[in-house]
Amino acid sequence: MKSILFKSSFLLVFTLLSFKTSVQQFRGQAIYFSKSKMELGRWGARMSEAQKKQIQARLKNRLEKTYILNFNKKESFFEEEEKLDAISGATDSWGKNFSQGDQYKNIQENSLVQSQEFYGKRFLVKDQLQKIQWKIGKESKQIGQYLCFKATTSIPTSELKWYNFSWSDLRRESQKRTDSLATKNGAPEIPMTEVEAWYTPQIPVSHGPAEFWGLPGLILEVSAGNTVMLCSKVTINPKEEIIIQAPSKGKEITKAEYQKTIRGKMIEMRNNRGRRRG
Q1: How far is it, in rounded angstroms, from Cα 40 to Cα 14?
Q2: Residues 61, 35: Cα–Cα separation, whole Å
Q3: Among 37, 59, 107, 163, fewest CB within 10 Å belongs to which?
Q4: Which phi and psi angles does 31 have, rounded to 5°?
Q5: Measured between alpha carbons, how far is 252 from 122 in angstroms, rounded to an integer?
């Protein structure tokens, strides 16, 4: 009897350890293709179709990108696949100053670590993950071999593109300080971006591309503003080992501090150009 109990206990412990190990080792890789619509604003009305196509060709590397997301149960690492410029054959060094760097997310610790480079200086942005209040719907569709469900949310635009810089945003901020019409109920209006995501419970991790996470399944498609990101390939437990590590090089800084830094530098560059012209 003791022998039977010992064997049963050993089998139970072995099964539990095997299950724990398999959970810890669960890992995957997802490839995403992103496409953004070109916004020319008021200048677009003055351009011919040929001029628009020429600009679109020159900006192809900024409008169409490929990303790789490596993940396990609690961590993910998101990076852009670097491509040569379609016109010059070189990498897009200017666009790199305002593009998303390598991004590490730890959903258990609610932490973000992102490597950013700005005019040759490296920064290590450390902050909390962007809070996202998802509304999960019943609508579903098939993406590849996975059944996906729809979720929507609204996120402050500045939180989605905190690593970018826009002169138009700067002008809007200046306008808000002088225009009382830019307030609603006594509080400044915050530009928001509507987000639509499709996730699959068949891959039970709460990861996704870029800033997006927090759903009961891997996000395979997301639309935010003028950009759509679609997963083209998923590999679960690939034969090659996937190592997920947070970036470690660069000056440590928060997202808010990084925004302040690049904004100040761009204003300084603009002022210096104005003085040289004068």
Answers
A1: 62
A2: 10
A3: 37
A4: -105, 130
A5: 9
Distance of CA 177 to the CA centre of its chain: 30
pLDDT tens digit string along 207-219? 999 999 999 999 9
Q: Which structure tokens are listed for 34? A: 């992103």
Helix 167-178 with 255-277: angle, nearest 10 deg: 90
Specify the 3-state DSSP secondary structure of 175.
helix
Angstrom distance (rounded) from CA 161 to CA 61: 18
Q: How far is CA 153 from CA 157, 216, 231, 242, in A?
A: 12, 15, 20, 31
Q: What pTM did the predictor assign?
A: 0.78
**212 to each of 26, 62, 227, how far by Cα in Å?**
20, 20, 13
- Angle at CA 184, nearest 5°, toward 261 and 212? 50
Place of tokens 């501090």: 257
